[in-house]
Backbone:
């Protein structure tokens, strides 16, 4: 696939899901479910301060240049911004998963789409493999 007159090309997608238990405290005789938050942390010199939405790719022999990856949330508009590997409330880059647990479905989940993006900070666009890595931290808040 080539970047002709576009800046990004849709790649694959992935889904994250976690099963949650109700919290033990009650308000108004109703059990509460935790709010499930997530933070992605990028590898390969990705800026992890909550400001960048580019996941940097590996460099070296056989690797493509001039390209990074972008992960978009389920709605296809909002992009993931990378933060520190921390469960702390208010961590930069942290956000709530789109589907939160409920009495009817105790799963929190979201589907994400990955895009190939032109990135001039990675040099001129050349062919090659595109490999990147990110970890995620989920927290109950």
Residues:
């Amino acid at each position: 696939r080539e970047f002709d007159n576009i800046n990004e090309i849709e790649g694959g997608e992935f889904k994250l899901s976690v099963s949650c238990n109700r919290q033990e405290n009650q308000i108004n005789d109703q059990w509460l479910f935790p709010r499930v938050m997530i933070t992605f942390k990028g590898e390969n010199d990705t800026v992890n301060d909550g400001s960048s939405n580019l996941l940097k790719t590996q460099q070296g022999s056989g690797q493509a240049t001039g390209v990074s990856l972008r992960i978009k949330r389920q709605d296809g508009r909002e992009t993931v911004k990378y933060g520190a590997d921390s469960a702390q409330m208010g961590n930069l880059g942290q956000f709530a998963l789109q589907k939160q647990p409920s009495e009817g479905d105790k799963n929190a989940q979201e589907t994400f789409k990955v895009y190939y993006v032109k990135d001039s900070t990675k040099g001129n666009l050349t062919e090659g493999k595109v490999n990147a890595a990110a970890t995620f931290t989920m927290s109950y808040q």
Observations:
- The domain at 8-24+33-123+131-140 is CATH 2.60.40.1090 (Immunoglobulin-like).
- The first strand starts at residue 8 and ends at 19.
- The mean pLDDT is 90.
- The chain has no helices and eight strands.
